[in-house]
Design brief:
- With 107 residues, the chain is mainly α.
- The chain has one domain (5-104): Orthogonal Bundle (Helix Hairpins).
- 77% of the residues lie in helices and 0% in strands.
- Helix 1 (5-18) packs across helix 4 (58-78) and helix 3 packs antiparallel against helix 4.
């Protein structure tokens, strides 16, 4: 099994790119465009992931999911949310039914 350290390394790079000039990388240019552009990209990648799933192409689904996760990490980093913050929430939810967890949020 591959550990979560690869995601931590990606996030460290994303954090570095937040301060980089927009013309230095794709990620830096996306940060410079702001929240709306980042959200639009996450939505685009989510749609592509859904399409890959509907096509039943395993490799395409893996690649699109990787794109979705990558752009989700950009969004999280944009809001100073780290991978560990998400892992804490996963741990909190572990062993709780989805129905019970949703009720606990009052939604």
């Amino acid at each position: 099994m591959i550990d979560i350290e690869v995601i931590h390394r990606v996030q460290a790079t994303l954090n570095e790119r937040r301060e980089a000039p927009p013309d230095s990388s794709y990620v830096a240019s996306l940060y410079a465009k702001g929240t709306d552009a980042i959200c639009k990209k996450v939505a685009e990648e989510a749609a592509e992931t859904i399409m890959a799933a509907k096509d039943g192409d395993r490799l395409h689904l893996v690649r699109e999911t990787c794109d979705l996760w990558f752009h989700s990490l950009i969004l999280l980093t944009h809001f100073d949310i780290g991978v560990d913050d998400i892992m804490v929430e996963f741990r909190r939810r572990e062993g709780i039914s989805g129905i019970d967890e949703k009720k606990s949020r009052g939604t």
